[in-house]
Amino acid sequence: MLSAFPHLTDSEFDEACVRLVQKFQQQGCKQDEWLSVELVHQNETKHLRITKALSDKQDTPVKAESESDIDEIEEHDQVGHEFVACVRESYSGQEALSPSTKHQAIVLYDIVLSPTYRVPVLYISISDPQHRYPPTMATLYEQLVPPDCVSQTHDVGVMGGITIADHPATNSPVFFVHPCRTAEVMEASVEKNTITAAEYLMLWIGALGKCVGLNVPLALARHE
Question: At what angle do helices 182-189 and 197-209 cross, to 10 degrees?
């Protein structure tokens, strides 16, 4: 039972993150969608990171930023400063990646607990050795958002709008899903507070992740 459903306390969020890392360690070999799940300690912040390979959604990478894209990044980069990670465990997010992974484009899904909204918040970035995917809205829609989710993300869909903000650990511009409607959606998704913190996090990923290319592997969803 959660003490403040549909919100999470620091300890509940920590518990959920640790449980997901453990579940991946136990069941991750039975799936090939997620490359790693770990608790990352970076620049005095801690967060849960899910890593997956960038799918071949487009045959050609996005071109370098246009002037309007740069303006868009500057306009939104203050949003991310309000959010900090609240995970007690630490882990190096690069150690779990295989040598082959280090030479391909991967997507980093960083999850932190918003101290303002008291719900998980998602920051997304693409790590690519060739720097082909700048943090622009063109990259977001061409590489990460499935076609059937485009209208939802444009219209501040069920989980909130996607914008560009500074990552709380690196201060680099990344994609950011605003949590303005998260509590409302989570409350509507569960008839009453009968779920654990770990179940809350998996339900949240399932509801939010599909719009940015992050789906819960069946091997992880079936084992609690």
Answer: 110
Neighbours of 59 (CB within 10 A): 5
Instruction: State the residue for tokens 């868009």.
Output: 72
| Nearest alpha-carbon partner for 101 in 5, 35, 164 | 35
Q: How far is CA 111 from CA 51, 57, 205, in A?
A: 11, 24, 10
Give the Cα separation of 168 and 166 in Å (integer): 6
Q: Where are the alpha helices (DSSP H) in 96-158?
A: 137-139, 150-154
Scored b (16 or more CB within 10 A) or e, 131-164 reads ebbbbbbbbbbebbbbeebeebbeeebebbebbb
Instruction: Please tell me the pTM assigned to this model.
Output: 0.78
CB proximity list for 40: less than 8 A, separation 6 or greater: 46, 47, 48, 49, 90, 91, 92, 93, 110, 169
Pick from 61, 51, 213: nearest CA to 133: 61
Residues 17, 38 contacting (CB under 8 angstroms): no
CA-based nearest residue to 73, from 60, 64, 83:
64
Token pair belonging to 6: 């549909």
CATH annotation of 10-218? 3.30.1460.50
Q: What is the mean pLDDT of each run of 10 residues along the chain (224 residues)?
A: 92 96 95 96 87 72 47 40 30 42 84 94 95 93 89 59 90 92 88 88 92 93 67
